[in-house]
Amino acid sequence: MMSEQTSKSNTAGLTPKELVTGSIRLVSLPEVCIRVNEMLDEPSVTAAELGHIISQDTSLTARLLKIVNSSYYGFQAKIETVSRAVTVVGLRELRGLVIAASAVETFSNVPDEILNKVRFWRHSLYCGVIARLLAEQCHVLHSERLFVAGLLHDIGKLIIAQRLPTETRMIALEADAGHRSEFEVEQDFLGFNHAEVGGELMKAWSMPETLFESVAYHHNPQQAETGIMETCLVHIANILTDEAEQGLDMKEGGPLQQIDPFAWEITGLNESVKDHVFREAGPLFAEALETILPRSYPAY
Question: In CATH, which superfamily holds the domain spanning 109-300?
Fold first, then answer.
């Protein structure tokens, strides 16, 4: 049970959808990202057309090229133009990459006294790396898209921190004092959790259904319908990330969630995969920090 101090429900009386709707002006993607999203729904769009639009945003262009030239893709020849990046990565993957290149900067205004952004993005990036490695083990097509799903899985926490800073502090204190997960405390205190909020943001950003489910159901993978495999992979990756952080004494709050047997069954993986992914994740994680986390953030 929650302590007397934190037994109140969500004082703002908001639903996840209302929380996101009220945050849209704060978390709107750059204009170029919105246009790219729209263009990708047009059957006749070409790599050259997308490259032209993205190139209008020099900051986004630089971040995108840095990502596609990283070891996630391992292309032998350096990719120097956005249109070439679109060609080699594929139209289907571009949507996620544009989001990955923009998300960190979009949420840079969340106060550190409410939520430690460096710790948040370290967790998110490591989860993304692990999710991609697990997808490779499962021979999932376009496994790099799981990096984006892992990167964005906890993004609802940032919305909650923006809109409900007092509740965010109280949830963290209760989780720490009661040795419970923040996910459970959110549900008790707010009537919803960060995964639901993140799912609503994916809808607001017009993301693919599989990405919506990976974010919305990463704590409850059995709820997924369209992206069952992807959701199970992010579920496992999130818990393995928690486990790695606990080993480094970085994990705050309550005990680790157990991996749902359903996720092991769907993916065909088991506990033996841990040694491989933890061994491979280190170098990729280091590069992800350098590639994606802005230099304006404190030293990581």
Answer: Hypothetical protein af1432 (1.10.3210.10)
